[in-house]
Amino acid sequence: MTKLITVFGATGNQGGSVVRAVLEHPVLSKEWRVRGITRNKSRPDAMRLVGRGVEMVEADLNSKDSILNAIQGSDAVFGVTNYWEKASLDHEVQQGHTLTSACLAASIPHLIWSSLPHVSKITHGKLHNLHHFDSKALVEEYIVSVGQPATFVMPAYFMSNIPGGIKKTENSEEYTLSWMFKPDTQIPMLDVPRDFGKFVASALIVGPSSQHVLASSGWFTPTDVCAAVEGVTGKKCVFSEIPVNEFGGSKELFDNLMMIREYEYYGPGAKDGVERSQSGVKEVGGWEEFGTFEGYLRGVGFGEL
Ligand SMILES: NC(=O)c1ccc[n+]([C@@H]2O[C@H](COP(=O)([O-])OP(=O)(O)OC[C@H]3O[C@@H](n4cnc5c(N)ncnc54)[C@H](OP(=O)(O)O)[C@@H]3O)[C@@H](O)[C@H]2O)c1
Hints:
Blueprint lengths: L2 E5 L5 H11 L4 H4 E7 L5 H8 L3 E4 L5 H8 L4 E4 L9 H17 L5 E4 L4 H4 L8 H15 L4 E6 L1 E2 L7 E3 L6 E5 L7 E4 L1 H15 L5 E4 L2 E3 L1 H12 L3 E5 L9 H13 L6 H16 L7 H7 L6
Parallel strand pairs: 1-2, 1-4, 2-3, 4-5, 5-6, 6-11, 7-10, 9-13
Antiparallel strand pairs: 8-9, 10-12
Helix pairs in contact: 1-8, 4-5, 5-7, 8-11, 9-12
């Protein structure tokens, strides 16, 4: 009998990637059915998924009853919250708690939670404004504390964050990239649509492990990013480092960049963890390749008019 995975955020980046990874995998696609969650089944994204054989069900992460109804009969649930909708730590934590308690009440055998590192803890309070990381880590702590069987998949820095910061002035033949990183700062990056689902699908195969899976396509530096821009456009790309004391953005963004610059995004020692997670995906799921930043730029048509 086929098993059922219910995917929150199915119409979005992360959830959409999870849906495709399961549907396109030679074994998983035969063993698992996919139920996707949306707040509005009539939106075109949701209807397209129905066309691909996904059962779309309406639920809202703010309503435990709607979640309970939506996850009924699931063998696994993928959970993701969108911090930016309210930009509130408390709100996101509340949604995570609601999802977790619904999973417990419905005896869901495996919750795969889209988590992030607990930055305030890792940095001993030095970086305490990175609320969209801490919130997901607090939910993770709650999942563990109530005994919900789970795996924690942590998405790396989205490649999609980057193109908006690569500028070309109108009459110039040159691109510029200004960032609060050093030229050789190592950034774990994720081509979300292409790669994220592979990590979740592999966790599905393994079963609840209570482990952290670091979902990264690979490590790239600002120098690599500029080289990719040059490779795709044939035009020069110049990187310039914004000094830490001249950064003009929000406290949350500052802490986000500092976490990458000084603590490897996932915390010290992350390189080994990323490699282990990639090896796991290769061994368990049979996926051999992960995205590159140049491939990502080509995919989004960067530099084309
Ligand atoms: N940018 C980065 O580098 C980075 C790195 C790691 C993690 N993140 C995290 O990624 C998260 C966003 O994930 P994403 O990019 O996959 O999101 P996304 O593409 O914006 O999609 C959001 C999804 O969540 C669903 N959703 C939103 N509110 C909901 C609610 N109340 N109830 C049920 N479903 C709801 C939406 O479904 P409908 O609209 O169909 O209802 C949609 O499918 C953020 O929390 C952010 O902190 C970002």
